[in-house]
Amino acid sequence: MLDNMIFKQLMKHSFTIPVEVTYPNGKTEKYGNGAPQVKIKVNEKIPVKDLLRNASITLGEAYMDKKIEVSGSLQVLINSAYESANSFLNNNKFKRFLPKQSHSEESSKNDVQSHYDLGNDFYKLWLDKTMTYSCAYFEKPDDSLEEAQMNKVHHILKKLDPKPGSSLLDIGCGWGTLMLTAAREYNMNVVGITLSEEQYNAVKQRIKDEGLEDQAEVLLEDYRELDHLPFDYITSVGMFEHVGEENLDEYFNTISRYLKSNGVALIHGITRQQGGAYNGWINKYIFPGGYVPGLNENLTHIIESGMQVADIEMLRRHYQRTLEMWTDNFHKVLSEVRKMHDERFIRMWDLYLQACAASFESGNIDVIQYLISKGPSARTLPMTRDYMYKD
C-alpha cells in the first residue's frame, strides 16, 4: 500500500505535460491540465526501494519487460521528466550514479565490442549509407541524414585546416568515413584505430575497395598502445565518453603525446555542461563503462595535458535531430530487426534512442567539438573562423 502511494506521488510530480497513468489495479489518474499527451500503463507494481536504489535501471527494465507500457512519444515523456524540477530524474532522493568502473585495456575492449559488434548488418538497417554513428551536422533544414553526416565530416576536417600530404590519426574511427574522406578528398595520410572487430574488418575492406592502401591504414588496438610517429592532426569522434572518468587525463595526455609540436586536434564528444555523470540503465544495457564528462572537467584535462583550446562549438540540437532521424529509421525497419533480435531488445533500443533524444532536447547533455592545439592556441590556424565555412 505504501509503495503504491509513493509511486503515485512520484508520477504526479514528474512531468510538465498532461499525462494519464493506469495503475495495476485498473484505476486511471490524469495529471496536469488538458488532454493527456502521453498515456502510461503500469502493469505490475514497481517497488519504491528499487526506484531509490537506481531509478533509471528500474524504470528502464520495467519498460523493456512490459511492466510499463507507453502510448505516445517516449521522447516527449522523458523530455518532460527532465524539465520537471520534481521528477525522479532531477530530485536528489531518486538520483543514483553507478560506482567507479574499470577501464583497463581488456575491459575497454569488451565494452566497445558489446555495443559495436552487434553486427554491421544491424547498424546498416537504420544508419545512413556513410555508416556514421555519431552526431550529424545540419547545414540546411532539409538536409538528409546522409548529407548531414557528410557535412559533419567536412566540418571537422575544415576546422583542422589540413595541408595536403599531412598525417592524421583518427582515434575511434568507426566505419571509417571520416578517415577515408580525409585521405580521398584532402590528400592526407591517415591511420584509424578501433577496438571493434566488425568495424576493423569493414574499414580494411573499404580501404582496399577504394584503392587507398598507400594513404590509409586501420588498426585493431587500444588507442593507448599506438606505436607510430607523432601526427600533424588528430580527430576523435564519440570516443572520450567510453574511456571512463578515471582515464580522461590519460586520454588527453595521449592525444598531446601523439601530436607534433603545434599540431591540431578536433575532439568531438558528448559532454554535460552541468558536470560529469553516469546513467545506470545506459551503463548496464547500452554502453558498459560509459561516463559523460563535464565541460569544466574536459577543459581542465586539455590544459593540464599541455594543450590549449582554439575553439569550442556546441551541437546539442544537431544530435537531438540526428537521434530523431535514427528513431524514425529504426521504426521503419522493425520487421527486419525482429529477424535478428527479440522484442525485449527492440524495446531496449527504442528506449535508448528516444531517451537520448530527450536528454539532448532538455539540455541534460550536450555534444561539443573542442578544437585544440599543442602549444599556443591556434598558432597555425587562420585568424578568424571564416576558413571553417569555405568550400
From TrEMBL:
Keyword Transcription in annotation: no
Biological processes per GO annotation: lipid biosynthetic process; methylation
Keyword Transmembrane listed: no
Sequence ranges assigned to domain DUF7884 in this UniProt record: 6-93
InterPro entries assigned to the protein according to its UniProt record, in alphabetical order: CFA/CMAS (IPR050723), CMAS (IPR003333), DUF7884 (IPR057206), SAM-dependent_MTases_sf (IPR029063)
GO molecular function, one term: methyltransferase activity
Keywords: Lipid metabolism, Methyltransferase, S-adenosyl-L-methionine, Transferase
Superkingdom as given in the UniProt entry: Bacteria
Active site: C356
Sequence similarity: Belongs to the CFA/CMAS family.
Record's protein name: Cyclopropane-fatty-acyl-phospholipid synthase
Record lineage: Bacteria, Bacillati, Bacillota, Bacilli, Lactobacillales
